[in-house]
Amino acid sequence: MQIASWNLNSLNVRLDHVLAWLEKNPVDVLALQETKLTDDRFPVAALAEAGYHSVFSGQKTYNGVALLSRAPARDVVTALPAFEDEQKRLIAGSFGKTRVIGVYCPNGAALDSPKYAYKLAWFEALAEFVRAELTRHERVLLTGDFNIVPRPEDTHDPDKWEGGILCSPPERAALQTLLDCGLTDCWRLFAEREGRHRYTWWDYRGGGWPRNAGLRIDHLLASPALAASCSACEAHVGERGRKRPSDHVPVVGTFT
DNA sequence: ATGGCTTAGGTGCTAAGA
Known about the structure:
Elements: E1 2-7, H1 11-24, E2 29-33, H2 44-49, E3 53-57, E4 65-69, E5 74-77, E6 90-95, E7 98-104, H3 114-136, E8 139-145, H4 158-161, H5 169-180, E9 184-185, E10 201-202, E11 214-215, E12 218-222, H6 224-227, E13 230-235, E14 251-255
Parallel strand pairs: 1-2, 7-8
Antiparallel strand pairs: 1-14, 2-4, 3-4, 5-6, 6-7, 8-12, 9-12, 10-11, 13-14
This protein binds one DNA strand through residues 9-10, 12-13, 34, 36-37, 60-62, 107-110, 147, 149, 160-161, 164-166, 201, 203-208, 211, 213, 215, 217, 244, 246-247.
């Protein structure tokens, strides 16, 4: 079974990219983030023609998440319980024996921003939800754009990023809280990557891609039973070099 | 090299991203 995550930065702009990628990479489940469209505009028919079911939770202009899948999703959840939020950032569904939770975690903007406080509160609510899901399901994958860099070596320039937004100790603690629920960062199950293969995002600005000024912020976090069956976890960095790319690339986990 | 892009909404610019 293959499960992937991709922050598209607009599904409307990137629909052709998704269809082309799925044709070459017929994963079982693809979690999407930043679809940036309301549910009435979701391209259900085009994806169905490509052999994929869709469930989604979107809004105008910002955020928006979806799960595309070969088999239809069961027991779909589209919000964090007990967390009032107008922003569409979470969607969960079951596929066979596997529970997939797709997330577009808040960016935080800056350490002194109200958005940073919102980010940390959102992660607390996410951890509560994940704990509950882990009591109900043995095979759980929490995946998406976390907007947190796990370690200094997951940035192209630790001197520039360490301590700042995406790399601050409270954000790292929020990620660690999720791992402490019993989740494993699938990326870390395999050898360190070289060059572009170390990252999942490159800034549009300042030649981020040609300079390989990247970050690893898109993750697959697996429960013990699922992590034990993980045989690969790779970023499809070639997508970043295509015409009119998203700033994030797909990250694919293979589970036996 | 915190931007020098890219997106949506709306039609000239702002907000937001990471």
